[in-house]
Structure formats: C-alpha cells, structure tokens
Amino acid sequence: MLPYGRQWIDEADIEAVTEVLSSDWLTTGPWVRDFEQAIARQAHVEHAVSCTSGTAALHIAYAAAGLGPGDEVVTTPMTYVATASGAMHHGATIVFADIEADTGNIDPAAVEAAMTDRTKVVAGVDYAGQPVDADRLNEIAHRAGALTLQDAAHSIGSTYKGRPVGSLSDLTTYSFFPTKNMTTAEGGAIVTDDAALALRADEFHKIGVSRDRSSYRHPDEGAWWYEVPAIGLNYRLSDVHAALGLSQLGKLADFKARRAERFARYQEGLAGIDGLRLPTVRDWADPTWHLYPVRVLGGRRREVFDKLREAGIGVQVNYIPVYWHPVFEDLGYRRGMCPNAEQFYSEEISLPMFAHLELSDQDRVIDTLRSILGA
Prior knowledge:
Elements: H1 11-21, H2 30-43, E1 47-51, H3 54-64, E2 72-75, H4 82-88, E3 93-96, H5 108-114, E4 119-125, H6 134-143, E5 147-151, E6 159-160, E7 163-164, E8 171-175, E9 188-192, H7 195-205, H8 239-249, H9 252-269, E10 276-277, E11 285-286, E12 292-296, H10 301-310, H11 326-329, H12 339-347, E13 348-351, H13 359-372
Parallel strand pairs: 2-3, 2-4, 4-5, 5-8
Antiparallel strand pairs: 1-9, 6-7, 6-11, 8-9, 10-12, 12-13
Helix pairs in contact: 1-8, 2-8, 3-4, 3-7, 9-13
InterPro entries: DegT/StrS_aminotransferase, PseC, PyrdxlP-dep_Trfase, PyrdxlP-dep_Trfase_major, PyrdxlP-dep_Trfase_small
Active site: 180 (proton acceptor)
GO molecular function, one term: pyridoxal phosphate binding
C-alpha cells in the first residue's frame, strides 16, 4: 500500500541519534538546548520550548496563555481534535468558526462574528501547510484583548507575505510526527517572541518547576531548592528525539522543495477533470505542503476513496469536523454549525504527499484517479 504520508530517515539521522546514545545525556541535555535554539532561529523568534508531541505543544501553549474555566477559544472544526481538546483540558469552552470554502483555513470573518468578551485565544490551523491569514486574525484577536495561537502542525517551513510561520502569531505550535514536514519520531514545539509566554510554557512542560530564584517565595534555601508555583506536566523532549530533529531540520529546505515539486505535478496532472476540485493557493502564501487535498464533487467521495484504497493507494480524509465527535455531541454541539467545513469534509481526500514520493508512484496516483473519474 502506498502511504499517504511517511518520514524520510537517512544515515545522517541515524548517526545523530547514535551519538546521543553513546553520550552521557539521554534527556535534559545539550541536544535539547541546541534543537530549541535552532527551531527558534528557523521561526525568526527568540524562544522555543520543545515537547513530546504536537498535542502536548497545544496543551502547553494554552497553559502559557493562562486559559481557565469561563474562557473561550475560537477555533476551526477542520483540524485534528487536539486543537480543541488541548484548550478543554484547561476548562475552556470551544467556539467553532467556519472555514474558507476554498482553502480549508479558518475564515477571519467567521472568527470576528464568534468573538465575545470571554474570548481568550483565537486558534487558527494552517490547513495542508498553507498559512492562515495571520495579520487579519491578529487584528481581530488583539482588538478584543485576546491572544492568537497558530497551530502549525502542517506548516513548518511555510511563509506568509515573506515571513516564516512561527513569527506570525503570539504563540505557534509545531508537530514532528513522522508524517509531518520533518520528524523527531514523536515530538512538538512551541515558539514565541514573548518572554513571559515562553517562561510559562517552559515551566508547565517541566512539571511546573521554577528555578528562577528571583521569583521564589522562599529564596533563602540552598542550591538544591526549586519551587512549583503552578501545576504542570512532564512534557520534556529527550535528547535522542532532539538529535533526530536537529538532523531533520537541516533538510527542511530540501523537503519543502520536493513537496513543492510534487504539488505542482499534481496540479498539472489533475487539471481539468470534471468533478474534481484542486487546492487553492493564496498569493501571499509559500507553503510547505504537508497534504495534497482534493475535493471529489457530486457525492462520489466514498466511491473514489474506496477505489483508490483498493488500487493500493493509501489515501486519507483530513478531517472529520471536530464537533461531530461524540464527546462534543454530548456537550451539545450539533451538526450544521459550520456549513463550509461540513461541505469540505464531505468532498475531501488527501492524496499521497511526502518529500520522497517517487514520481512513478505519483504518476500511478494521477492515472488511477483520472481513470476512476472517467477523465
């Protein structure tokens, strides 16, 4: 089965991990420090906090934002559930705003309509790798005294109006799961230019531990002393994972170029097919394409999906609208809330997209899809 996404690991990655395994540090060591510094440089910001997954990154970022009961988070339903559930773990209420009908990204106009005096965070998701309209979301959120969080699980390496994802919002989270644009096996990160947000994120992901003596309630204890001013969790990334991430980060530009080439080949090879809608790219976006999402029109999505799988092509659907899941239904969320997202879901199929997708395999995907659709 041709997968819809996969990692690329080479000898340099293996050597990087082996070096750590032969060292005195397996965690909380120099590779974690170096990886965080490299991620911050890549994002053009001052601070990065690495962690165990993209889901953990969201949980940490919401903690840094100070979310609690009574607060609201405005976000998109066209995402993985963690974008919402990470906020709910802090007691916040999720308010879903509809998406743009063409890109799959959250619609700033819908966000503006959803804002209340309880909105604490506006969380956009860079669907498929294309950045959200960050300037517009910042304007809407900041006018209301809220923060912006950019879920960039799909988009490390992407740029918006010439600026890198990571530098666009108050907080940005990454995922380094194997199918993403680069990997640490499992892992994630939070990046920000705000020192206070970074400190809260760092302490939360270290079980709430503070080693800032200037902030201690009892500063006269010995060198062993530390304090826990607020409860956190152990979300620390290991040096083994960080070493793999450092090696992968050095290949990110190549990964982006390869994904762009395959995106362009899909756009050319699938152009002009009746009943098929191809991805839309905003003029100000230079994405690192994590997904290649097509839209199958005329109610044929299930048929086409099943036939592609039968042909050995591992397609996927991204995503089920979050509020369709039973846990949200049980809280009173109902279908019909976000019609653009529900229409998008009913048509979407993600075709295989990864940096080292063989061109012959891509041609097979194109030819098979054209044949199924009678093109």
